[in-house]
Known about the structure:
The chain is α/β, with parallel strands linked by helices. The protein contains nine helices and eight strands.
Amino acid sequence: MFRVLSTHLFLNQRLHPGLLELASRSGVEAVEIFAARQHFDYTSREHVAELANWFRSNPLEPFSMHAPLFPDREMGRAGAPACNLLHPEKSRRIDAMDEIKRALESADQIHFRNLVLHLGERDDGWSQRSIEYAVTALEHLGAFARPLGVRLLVENLISEPTTPVHLLLILEMGHLPNVGVCLDLGHAHITVGVAEAMATLGSHIGSVHVHDNHGLKDEHLWPGDGTIAWPATVEALKALSTPPATVLEISQTFGDAPTQIPARIEKAFALFA
């Protein structure tokens, strides 16, 4: 399987070439850049150019980008509203799309292939309006992403609108065959279960967020540190018609020493060998 490291692991640090080199030394083939301004400032020409120049001269690939969740540098802790594509207020939905487009513009220099999107927030409900808002956002962002060579992947979250069944309904009702799914294994484990999520989403899965938890909250642990049944999960992924990219998305809060990180990453991906 294609091995990708999410820079979510370094979310509290500015993303710089040294961190990308650390990822490269860990045996991964690509990264998913987490678009949070304190980490990757997609509004800074200098920061975008710095990373783009590094990727042009190194084999590590910018496989995907995770769309911004907040428009500020503090992940909403100072009161900034979340980027919510399903918000009841139209102005908030437009603001969210504009912020995501700012991040997407970096694909002109950093040639990532996929953009992972959250549809709404944890407490959003499921209704005909949430379907309409989701379809509108995906149509609009898809039209913006297409000339940049970027495909949209919607992620299953811990919310009603983003259950595997509801995500498929959104894609079908919106006639959106070019939009895929990023299957988040940790979120699936907390909700419908990994096996059911995989069986439901099947060929729509373009990438997989790999992390663990104990089935109660979104902990983003290293694989094996929670209760996901990894041997069965790996076999099910390998049985898919097109094995998806595996994106290791670990929490930034564990404080692993830099010298330990490559070995931990290698151990995590060894599960998928």
